[in-house]
Amino acid sequence: MNKIIVSAFFTAALLGSPFAYAQSHPVTFRDIASDPAAAAAFKTMATGHRLPDWINGKTVESPGHEVMFGADKVYVMSACKQHDCGAERIAILYDPAKKVMYGVLLVADPKTMSEKLTWMHIGAGNEAIDGRTILYAALTGSLENHPDAFNYK
Q1: What are the backbone dihedrals phi and psi of residue 137, each rounded to the nearest 5 degrees, phi first?
Q2: How far is CA 94 from CA 87, 112, 145, in A?
């Protein structure tokens, strides 16, 4: 009987965790490479942009978050340059149903106290504004601190 309860608890905990979602969708920035649809969406998103080499190397990653974007559940992930998170970060929003990805690359200059944001594959209009809000929130930690505040339906 105890084994059944423990097994049921473990199964419920697993299904409620991001790892259950990872079985069919990326959970972290690094997971994108192992998901063919996400990797293709990333390549499309990055077309026309020069991304820094660290993106393909060692990164520091935050766990992803599932949010509502329009009528779709999307996954938002972020990463930063190892040993320089304050200066270089990336956030991506992946819609697995549409197989589309949007992103923002932030490069900060501590000397001038400025940030350069490079928006990738995100258009104009209200949906783009909401997408940009979600992506910037992922960069700043607001999404992690207040995940329910970034569900746009």
Answers
A1: -65, -35
A2: 23, 32, 20
Q: What is the pTM of this model?
A: 0.79
**What DSSP designation does 147 have?**
G
- CATH code (residue 80): 3.40.1420.10
Render 75-121 in DSSP notation, one character per residue.
Answer: EEEEEEETT-TTTEEEEEEEETTTTEEEEEEEEEETTTTEEEEEEES
Per-residue pLDDT of the chain in tens (153 residues, 90 and over written 9): 333 333 332 333 333 333 334 446 677 888 898 899 999 999 999 999 999 999 988 899 988 889 988 888 999 999 999 999 889 999 999 999 999 999 999 999 988 989 999 999 988 776 788 889 999 999 988 888 887 788 776
Q: What is the enclosing helix (H) or strand (E) of 5?
A: helix 2-15
Strand arrangement, sheet containing 59-69: 59-69, 72-81, 88-95, 100-109, 114-120
What domain range includes position 72? Answer: 25-150
Domain count, the chain: 1
Residue 58 resides in a domain? yes
